[in-house]
Design brief:
301 residues, Hypothetical Protein Yjia, Chain: A,domain 2, 27% strand, alpha/beta, 29% helix, 7-stranded parallel β-sheet, Rossmann fold, 5-stranded antiparallel β-sheet
């Protein structure tokens, strides 16, 4: 029996994984397949799951941790079993949370019902051309994502100088000389790179690739309009302890996608949908969760 190929997408917070996923879902060679998706988020609510382009596929949201961590191993195995037995896809694509510290997926799913069913065909790591050299020295997960990947996609090259992009490419080459590289804007990877059939020997990993205990995610659902000034004030207050914020929020003129990565704040219109759940996830380092949750809930008008 042929194994189901799996494409794993990693990349640190804000690298553009969901934009990249939406791009590859539009590729003719991918769109023509029977697909299953797993969207893995560190927070308890599925923000990215709402932003994936609509299509004829089976989508599963796995929240509250990293798929590479033993903390949600049971949920992950249950989901993989359902996909294998009920969906029987031609291809499974997994978007891992940005804080994922990747280890050997084959070890995690080394159970009788799964070990002969799936085969990792690609591990693609999205690299933020602007922020990677700031993130990697302080977050080991960002380095490990590069080390395990067989394709490195240097994304957001339009936001960095050519000199900085080339310097980053050299750094990545030294970190992982066997990985293929591609420099892109908006995750627009070439089709032949993502669908290639060549195999890569991967480094062995461990089963305890969990984020640091000081790393926390707080997710809040909003039923009302959010005070934009108070939100910006909270972002400023958290400062360097705020690693990432992302959500779908209504400031008064309809739903927008609100994001922060380091000091960069952006917003853009949310995709049109019959139903949009307003929510915000903040990923912080060393901030008490209950205190942060209270402040986030108070943002509603």
């Amino acid at each position: 029996m042929n194994k189901i190929p799996v494409i794993i997408i990693t990349g640190y917070l804000g690298a553009g994984k969901t934009t990249f996923l939406n791009h590859i879902l539009s590729l003719p060679s991918i769109a023509g397949k029977k697909l299953a998706l797993i969207i893995n988020e560190f927070g308890s609510l599925s923000v990215d799951g709402q932003l994936v382009r609509k299509g004829d596929y089976s989508k599963y949201d796995l929240n509250r941790g990293s798929i590479f961590c033993i903390c949600i191993k049971t949920d992950f195995i249950t989901t993989m079993t359902s996909i294998a037995e009920e969906v029987k896809p031609d291809l499974l694509i997994i978007e891992a949370t940005g804080v994922a510290d990747p280890c050997d997926l084959e070890q995690i799913v080394d159970v009788p019902t799964l070990k002969d069913t799936f085969e990792i065909s690609r591990e693609v790591c999205l690299i933020d051309a602007v922020n990677f050299t700031r993130t990697a020295p302080i977050m080991q997960a960002a380095q490990n994502q590069v080390l395990r990947a067989d394709i490195l996609v240097i994304n957001k090259t339009d936001l960095a100088s050519e000199k900085d992009v080339n310097r980053l490419s050299e750094i990545l080459q030294r970190m992982n000389p066997s990985a293929k590289q591609e420099k892109v804007v908006q995750g627009q990877i070439s089709e032949e790179l993502i669908i290639g059939s060549d195999k890569t020997s991967r480094k062995a990993g461990s089963l305890s690739c969990c984020p640091p205990e000081t790393l926390a995610a707080v997710s809040v659902r909003f039923n009302k309009q959010v005070d934009g000034a108070k939100l910006l004030s909270l972002v400023k207050e958290l400062g360097k302890n705020l690693l990432r914020a992302k959500g779908i929020i209504n400031f008064g003129d309809g739903p927008v996608i609100f994001e922060t990565i380091f000091e960069r704040i952006s917003e853009r219109p949310a995709p049109q949908a019959d139903k949009v759940d307003m929510m915000l996830t903040m990923i912080t380092l060393g901030i008490p969760k209950d205190n942060l949750r209270s402040k986030m809930e108070s943002l509603q008008i």
